Amino acid sequence: MTQNTKVVLTHEVAKLGNAGDVVEVRPGYARNYLLPRRLAMPWTKGSQVEIDRMKAALAKKQIASMEVAQAVQAKLAEGDPVLIDAKAGANGRLFGAITTAQIAAAVKEQKGAEIDKRKIVIEQPIKSVGTYQLTVRLFEELTSPLEVTVRAEK
Hints:
The protein is α+β, with helices and mostly antiparallel strands. It folds into 2 domains: 5-68, Ribosomal protein L9, N-terminal domain (Ribosomal Protein L9, domain 1, 3-Layer(aba) Sandwich), CATH 3.40.5; 70-152, Ribosomal protein L9, C-terminal domain (Ribosomal Protein L9, domain 2, Roll), CATH 3.10.430. The chain contains 3 helices and 9 strands; from the N terminus they run ββαβαββαββββ. The strands form 3 sheets. A 4-stranded mixed β-sheet has the order 4-9-8-6. The longest helix has 31 residues, at 47-77. The mean pLDDT is 86. One of its GO terms (molecular function) is rRNA binding.
C-alpha cells in the first residue's frame, strides 16, 4: 500500500483545492503532474510560513477579484449568445470539436470580457452545429451561464 504525499497547492486545481491548501495526493500524481506544472510544491514543516504568506496575498487579490468577477458575470449575462463559426459537414457535424480556448477567444472578441479557458465547464464535447448552455466558474462560489451558438462556416 502506497503512502499519500502532502503537497501545498500554488494554483487552483479542479476537484482538488485552491491555492494555499495542503492536500494529500498519490505520489505519482504529485511527482508526474502537480510538481512539474508548478501547480503544487512539496509540503514541509518549514513551508507553513510560505503558506501563510501565500494566503495573505490571495486574500488581498480576492477582494478585487470578486468585483471583477461580478463585472464579467454582468457582461456574460447581457445580450446575444456567443457565436462561433466552425467547419462542418453536410449533416452539421463539425470537423473536430470546439475547445474552451476558442470559446474564451470568442467571448473576449464579442462581449469584451476576458475569461480563463480553464474556468469554462463543458459537460459534453461540442461536435455539431447548434446552441449549447455552458457554465463559467468566475470565482469560488460565483458561476455564470453562457450560451454558445455554433454555426457552419460558409
